[in-house]
Amino acid sequence: MALSARAIYEEIRSNDETFRLFCSIAAKGEAQGGWENARIAELTGDRELAAKIVRHGTDEDKHGRIFLSLLRKRGLEPIAVPADADYCILLERAGIGLSHARLAEDRPLTDEELLAYLVHSRVTEQRAAEEVELQRKLFADDPELGKVIRTIAADEENHLAYCHEELLRMVERGHGARARAMLRHYAQVEIRAYRDVSLAVMRNMGEILGWSRAKRGVLAFGIRAIYQIERLFTWRRMTTLREPARKNALGAHAPLRA
Ligand SMILES: [Fe+2]
Ligand SMILES: [Fe+2]
Questions:
Q1: What is the CATH number of the domain that holds 52?
Q2: Is residue 255 situated within a structural domain?
Q3: Cα of 208 to ligand 2 centre, how many Å?
Q4: Does residue 251 fall inside a structural domain?
Q5: Which residue, 42, 59, 80, 205, shows the most beta carbons closer than 10 Å to its own?
Q6: Residue 56 Cα, ligand 2 centroid: separation in angstroms?
Q7: Cβ neighbours of residue 203 under 8 Å, at least 6 residues apart?
Q8: Number of domains the chain contains
Q9: How far is the CA of 17 from the centre of ligand 1 (A)?
């Protein structure tokens, strides 16, 4: 029974059905991020910040297209993402970030709502950066995936740097206590949603690949163990704010990659 992250990713990748599910989930999440950022930019009065939010959305849209092109190269079409494996929807249902209903309105965002957007991004970009960093290591030498994953990893690092920087700006403007409370709350919600999505994705993959009960049991145990570690200790990594090494990562002077 092969249970390392590398073995699981390889198994998912070598089966058309699971590869299709994996890329569809990834593409949907990225496209969702693209749409949300584009809309949030339209509702943001600060022109300089709005330009960075547009750039953030453009990157996420590009990532969505990368996953779709991986599917197309294998002659596969995307499929609908199972509701329980939809990370964005689970987070929205848990009440963090800005809801679809809110984004459908035309009122400009308040400071509190801008803060909600930035904290949501801080927490979810941390997760994205860590996930893609793992994939970057696993597929470093892969001729098909290596390069695209390096591109996405560099972007996610930029997004995270941008979140730190903009949130520190909000702290300077007197929103420190609110930002810290929100960061704690959002991190707790995110680690639960991440556990639930991981269990759902694992269940779906296991069904397609015919994993034994023992294998499913061990993987589910692992996901729950990670959740406990995050809940007790490592959630704090999502809530810290520090001046990033990469300054103005999404600013006007930052080069746009193809
Ligand atoms: Fe992304
Ligand atoms: Fe991102």
A1: 1.20.1260.10
A2: no
A3: 29
A4: no
A5: 59
A6: 7
A7: 216
A8: 1
A9: 23
